[in-house]
């Protein structure tokens, strides 16, 4: 019975993927936190009919910028990890669904670490 081991990943490729994964993880968490803040702000304004201070508008703006960075980080990691279009799409869309960016980030981190033999 032969035991097959996964092919060794070149250290330079591991380094590039590890860097892309780190950027992706930070972007996913920042996007997720701003999205949760945005949801709280919208519930307070539209459901509870509370008056929002003018600075609260920045929550939406910052989430928008964070999401753009998240999309770029997703593209960067997806290219380096050679994701399928379905994986790219589900990863990208998770930045606009509350709590999903945290779940998807954990799944992608696990998958990428396993596939590229990252410690």
From TrEMBL:
InterPro entries: DUF3817_TM. It is found in: Cell membrane. Keywords: Cell membrane, Membrane, Transmembrane, Transmembrane helix. The chain crosses the membrane at residues 21-43, 55-79, 86-104. Coiled coil: none annotated. This is DUF3817 domain-containing protein. The lineage of its organism: Bacteria, Bacillati, Actinomycetota, Actinomycetes, Mycobacteriales. Residues 22-110 form the DUF3817 domain. It is a multi-pass membrane protein. Signal peptide: none annotated. It comes from the Bacteria.
